[in-house]
Amino acid sequence: MILMEKGSIHSAVIPITVQPAGLDCQVELWLTSDGATKNATSGLVSFVSSGTIQNVTLDIVMPGVWGDYAVFIDVYADSAVIGQYVATERIGIAEADIGEPTWE
Asked: For the whole model, what pTM was predicted?
């Protein structure tokens, strides 16, 4: 698990191969705590396929609530999902509550 700070901004570089070259594509990176709800998303980011591997960088703001999040990546062409990926590493948002110290 990778630990991140609540509300922090991170970039993910994703290697994507879409064939044939020249397709108008979109990709979305999203985090979910339950497998369905998008707790955080990069939004759809457009790119044109090169027909070979290309790195696409996506920025995402981490959720503002502590928890354990799965990472999903969806690739679209002509509004149809043509590829989906579930990352093997999860994102953990940690939290600590610290009270006022007492002195003795």
From this structure: 0.89
